[in-house]
């Protein structure tokens, strides 16, 4: 494992890069409280190769940094556009031009340092908690229904374990295997600064592997299916 340090104001953020020989699949973990997903990613690269890049700072979902005598907080999966940066700073703390510039510079450095925009595909690693957010959140009546092109919900699987993809071929493959899977509407999805929106606009396929925090075996199996899908 190697550590890469980023500065946000007076605060240091670590990116932990776990690299293994083999096929160069890149997996990203941006929420520091979603450790099960990291464990699943590490199990995957130990078997198949690739790298897992995780952000480490406080053990919390949000990143907080000091600048100009005050603290600012943001969701690190909402910083890949100016619209997203402004919205997440306002929602989680407060907005200022100086804080906005710091977050924008961090997002650009993160993408550049790991050459993420040169990857053929990006796999994101996330965990859900038992609560309101699940694959059902993407149904037409759900909070995120307007961003969806198509969805499959399998009542035989946990609603907290699902794939979120930006590529129709991926959607059809996972649908045939009866997984919970959501296809992002790349034309209509709102610009929230997320990785899924950013990479879809760059033309880079994106796969979010989302599993309940206690469902490590399920997430390991989901990542195995991703490898098989990408090899096909």
Radius of gyration: 17 Å
Structural class: alpha/beta
Overall 3D shape: globular
Uncertain runs: none
CATH topology: Aminopeptidase
Gross CATH architecture: 3-Layer(aba) Sandwich
Number of helices: 6
Binned, the helix content reads: 25-40%
Instruction: Give the total of beta strands.
Output: 11
Structure, described:
There is one protein chain. This protein is α/β, with parallel strands linked by helices. 32% of the residues lie in helices and 28% in strands. It has helices spanning 35-48, 82-92, 97-113, 168-176, 195-201, 216-231, and strands spanning 2-8, 11-20, 26-29, 50-56, 63-67, 70-74, 122-128, 148-152, 162-165, 181-184, 206-212. A 9-stranded mixed sheet has the order 1-2-4-3-7-11-9-10-8, sandwiched between helices. Helix 1 (35-48) packs across helix 6 and helix 2 (82-92) packs across helix 3 (97-113). It is globular and about 55 Å long.
Provide the descriptors you would attach to this structure in a database record.
232 residues, Aminopeptidase, two-stranded antiparallel ribbon, 28% strand
Summarize the helices and strands and which ones pair or pack.
Elements: E1 2-8, E2 11-20, E3 26-29, H1 35-48, E4 50-56, E5 63-67, E6 70-74, H2 82-92, H3 97-113, E7 122-128, E8 148-152, E9 162-165, H4 168-176, E10 181-184, H5 195-201, E11 206-212, H6 216-231
Parallel strand pairs: 3-4, 3-7, 7-11, 9-10
Antiparallel strand pairs: 1-2, 2-4, 5-6, 8-10, 9-11
Write a compact overview of the structure shown.
With 232 residues, this protein is an alpha/beta fold.
């Amino acid at each position: 494992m190697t550590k890469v340090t980023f500065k946000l104001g007076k605060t240091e953020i670590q990116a932990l890069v776990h690299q293994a020989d083999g096929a160069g699949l890149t997996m990203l973990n941006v929420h520091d409280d979603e450790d099960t997903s990291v464990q699943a990613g590490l199990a995957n690269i130990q078997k198949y190769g690739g790298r897992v890049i995780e952000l480490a700072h406080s053990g919390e979902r949000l990143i907080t940094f000091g600048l100009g005598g005050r603290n600012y907080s943001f969701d690190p999966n909402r910083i890949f556009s100016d619209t997203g940066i402004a919205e997440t700073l306002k929602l989680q703390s407060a907005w200022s031009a100086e804080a906005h510039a710091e977050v924008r510079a961090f997002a650009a450095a993160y993408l550049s340092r790991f050459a993420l925009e040169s990857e053929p595909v990006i796999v994101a690693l996330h965990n859900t908690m038992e609560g309101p957010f699940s694959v059902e959140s993407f149904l037409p009546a759900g909070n995120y229904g307007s961003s969806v092109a198509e969805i499959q919900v399998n009542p035989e699987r946990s609603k907290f374990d699902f794939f979120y993809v930006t590529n129709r071929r991926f959607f059809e493959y996972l649908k045939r295997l009866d997984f919970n899977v959501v296809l992002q509407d790349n034309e209509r999805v709102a610009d929230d600064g997320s990785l899924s929106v950013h990479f879809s606009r760059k033309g880079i396929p994106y796969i979010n592997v989302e599993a309940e925090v206690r469902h490590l075996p399920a997430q390991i199996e989901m990542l195995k299916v991703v490898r098989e899908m990408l090899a096909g």
